[in-house]
Amino acid sequence: MLSFGKLVTNEWLKMFKKRSFFIPYAAIAVVIALVAFMMKQFGSAEGMPTGLEFTSAMFTKNGMGQLLTFLAIIGTAGSVPKEHSLGTIKLLLIRAQSRSKILAAKYVSVLVYILSLSLFAAGFSLLTGGLLFGLHARELGWNDVFLSLLVQLAYSLIYVTVTFMIGVLTRSTGATIGVGMILVLIESLVVGLLSRYDIIKYVLFTNVDLSVYLEGGTPPIQGMTLAFSLIVLAVYMVLFLGTSFVTFKKRDVA
Amino acid sequence: MNEHSLHENTDNAPVLSVKGVTKRIKNRNIVDRLSFEMHRGEIVGLLGPNGAGKTTTIRMIVGLIGMTEGDVLVKGKSIRNDFAGAIAHVGGIIENPEFYPYMTGHDNLKQYQRMTEGITEERIRDVVKLVGLENAMKKKVKAYSLGMRQRLGIAQALLHEPSILILDEPTNGLDPAGIREMRDYLKRIANEEGISVLVSSHLLAEMELMCSRVVVIQEGKLVTVQSLGASGEDGTPAERVNVAFRVDDAERAKARLERMEEISILKVSEEKNEVIISVRDAYIPRVVGALGAEGIALYRIEEIKESLEDEFLKWTGGNRIA
Questions:
Q1: Cβ within 8 Å, pair B156-A91
Q2: ipTM score here?
Q3: A6:B115 CB<8 A
Q4: Is residue B14 within 8 angstroms of chain A, CB to CB?
Q5: Where are the domains of chain B?
Q6: Does domain B240-303 have CATH number 3.30.70.100?
Q7: Second label for B54, Cα 20 to 30 Å away, from B17, B191, B260, B282?
Q8: Which pTM value belongs to this model?
Q9: Radius of gyration of chain A (CA)
Q10: Which fold has domain B2-233?
Q11: Could you read off the pLDDT of A158-184 as tens digits, one per residue?
């Protein structure tokens, strides 16, 4: 277990030591500050949100949810492909560690990364919202903020896992970022086009946005429940991770 | 014969044994039932023309490529069934060593330290000192020259005190000074620490200077295993050598030598005034005496050695460039 922790440390350092590491965090801060400033400046007095409402709004899919997901995709796309393009994969795989363990460490470091992005965004939203609008609870409490953070994390997690798999399969950072982003963008399009068919219930895209199950939301198809979506998502996750691990384990590194 | 004497020198089991390893891709055998063994402190060269399967073989030994059949044992542990246990004894540089360019040399070595239990900070310092990179450890690897990266590659491979080093084309892209430096490191490591070294290369002259044995493969199959240098000459005294005599009159020398038994004349070159004969070692003083008695002036006596290149072309049929 100790050695697995060290492997994760390794993977984290590979991301952290890059000069570009802080750019996504800076981008998040700038966007949040900008939105908060615009609301304060141009919003009417009675339409002003509280700090909690502001934070919760930032985490919806149409708020910053997609931006966070994009940043997470860009940040994690290189995890496996970069080892191939730099050629470091050869020295990485001739250590006394199994390939599964190495890939697992990569996946865990990716999870840590999206968690850090989301927590940073949450913290910065609360800070900005609190300073500009005050942190008193109205209809929306801390609990709701926490739930919207959780929903956003799940949303990012799914797409990042797909991206991770594509990275293992294609070994190309560019292609991985491209495909990952396109998937996020065509999500609503696919749901819209296929909504006539029953099968849409089982499509990944229909289930990724769990916010529809929060208070006041409506599921895309009648009769879908939170439990149903969670099961569908779990099946997809097993599929994506299974494909990644089997491919990575079997691959001949030429 | 040589196999036998090697066993006597090293009473322990082989450090590396490649057992009937086969790699089949789309019904074509890239490597075909290849077997050889390596012992402690040996430097063995893996030779072959382009496309012979050298790189595939090396990569199968270190587990980067899966084997279709056969197995590789490192210190008795199977690469197939006990990868972590077997590879723990192996240090490798596969082609040019590649590092994370945005990290310092030290950060890169730390990466590999974390992947193996029990590598101390002191061991890192020792290895860095051995390859002479003390002053470059705080620099980012992207600022390294190829020679420096090659040295960091050796440091990385030695970090976990392996029993065997496996190098795939280690001198690729190095300048002559770098090649020589590399060669000296490897020889020192093999002699002083008893580490076995397996090197694949197509630079024959390089292999000749470095290796005690070569394993020659062609089209994935083992062609021959040959001992080089000292171990090749300690054969039975009856062995004949080829010697060139430079004289003032090749015709007369030939006429005289023809009358002697135990000598076969291989070639007479009029323009160079040379006679090349095949003769026993012990017989040479008599040849010299005979020529002197005949009044033939003798300018040079040279042994004609077949270079590794000649032999290599002979083994591989000479139809391809190495």
A1: yes
A2: 0.86
A3: yes
A4: no
A5: 2-233, 240-303
A6: yes
A7: B191
A8: 0.84
A9: 20
A10: Rossmann fold (3.40.50)
A11: 999 999 999 999 999 999 999 999 999
